[in-house]
């Protein structure tokens, strides 16, 4: 278990639009991206790396984590190291959204991910988290994304093996983020309102 005891529910309730709610121990449907031709600009946008992996959603109810594909197929048994990592975070109830990657999560690392999952090779898997939807009895889905990401970043501030935070840049830096992502061989960027 982690050393510090933090009242995550109290912190979550400070987010705009947060409300008390019970988390259901089941898969949920994540928001999906739409392909765009240009990088949107403006303060209402933020931009993240487009990781090359498998989209996974996870819940933890009563301290027990479960992980699913974006289509609702349970993956908990396929990735026991991620389940164990989530259970070390501290909160007893969580809903998270992220991407399962191997290596650095670039296009070149996707084959390593597939080979690791099939047992052909030994590669380190990471769950790169980019959204927090529920924490310890508080539904934060209505809060602005930047507030949810700030709480997620705080939750991940104390490192846990196999878990990583997906950082972002503000709207006016989207074109530079895209250029850097392309140069480093990522799929591109995801722009979120």
Could you characterize what this model shows?
With 193 residues, the protein is α+β, with helices and mostly antiparallel strands. Helix content is 23%, strand content 27%. It has five helices and ten strands, in the order H-E-E-E-E-H-E-H-E-E-H-E-E-H-E. It has helices at residues 8-13, 80-87, 110-118, 145-155, 174-183, and strands at 19-20, 46-50, 54-61, 64-69, 94-102, 125-135, 138-139, 163-165, 169-170, 188-192. The strands form two sheets. Strands 1, 3, 4, 5, 6, 7 and 8 form a seven-stranded mixed β-sheet that branches. Strand 6 (125-135) and strand 7 (138-139) form a beta hairpin. It starts with 7 loop residues before the first helix and ends with a strand. The model has no long low-confidence stretch (mean pLDDT 93).
Describe what is shown at a glance:
By secondary structure, the protein is of the alpha+beta class. The protein is 23% helix and 27% strand.
